[in-house]
Design a protein that fits this description.
- This protein is mainly beta.
- It has a single domain, classed as Porin, CATH 2.40.160.
- Helix content is about 15%, strand content about 55%.
- An 8-stranded antiparallel barrel has the order 1-2-3-4-5-6-7-10. A two-stranded antiparallel ribbon has the order 8-9.
- Strand 8 and strand 9 form a beta hairpin.
- It is elongated, with a radius of gyration of 22 Å.
- It starts with a helix and ends with a strand.
């Protein structure tokens, strides 16, 4: 009798797991606006984009995100036209009723369109002269946020984090005040707010 009870409990648990995993699994599609404050160039940029995500269970999610920053950067003496940011990574956090607080870790790229500017002929060159050539810079995004489920299929999301941009070297930074002999990470505060659907 004891063995039968144990076997019944095991069967119920095993048969119940796929069902619960299936109901908690979902895909998300969302639109968002983002603002990033560059620590290296002391300038802000505003963008808009979209995000796709898959949450295989109630704790972990995988996501990809594309954001376009359409204005020239930085303010004042611009060395880049529009920029495109791509981020890919994971979120982790429990669902607590209608809320899901989460931490996130993502990696990707920040594409500078480049813009011709006048540069002084020195070595190493200023950082803005290197970035004016355009191209992709690797980025890592570390932060967190919260999802608020406003209906059976709808949600809003707010998140913030440290966008770490890998800059090239050697270069002069801070208006020729500091020299960097190797590549380095700059730190940007990045905040995004969006809304979307689950299915």
């Amino acid at each position: 009798m004891k063995n039968l009870v144990v076997l019944s409990v095991i069967v119920c648990c095993v048969s119940g797991r796929p069902a619960s995993a299936q109901t908690s699994s979902s895909f998300q599609v969302a639109a968002q606006v983002a603002v990033a404050r560059s620590g290296e160039f002391e300038s802000s940029e505003f963008g808009f984009g979209g995000r796709l995500a898959w949450t295989p269970n109630s704790l972990v999610g995988f996501e990809s995100e594309i954001t376009v920053y359409p204005a020239e950067f930085p303010n004042g003496f611009a060395f880049s036209g529009s920029r495109i940011e791509g981020l890919f990574g994971l979120t982790a956090g429990p669902r607590l009723g209608g809320l899901r607080p989460f931490a996130r870790l993502r990696a990707g790229f920040l594409h500078y369109s480049g813009k011709p500017i006048a540069c002084v002929a020195i070595f190493p060159p200023p950082l803005n002269c290197l970035l004016a050539a355009g191209g992709n810079r690797p980025i890592v995004d570390l932060g967190g946020g919260v999802e608020l489920f406003t209906g059976a299929r709808t949600f809003i999301r707010a998140d913030a984090g440290d966008r770490m941009v890998r800059y090239p070297g050697p270069s002069f930074v801070g208006g020729l005040r500091r020299r960097r002999d190797t590549g380095f990470f700059g730190h940007d505060l990045r905040v995004a707010i969006g809304a979307g659907f689950r299915f």
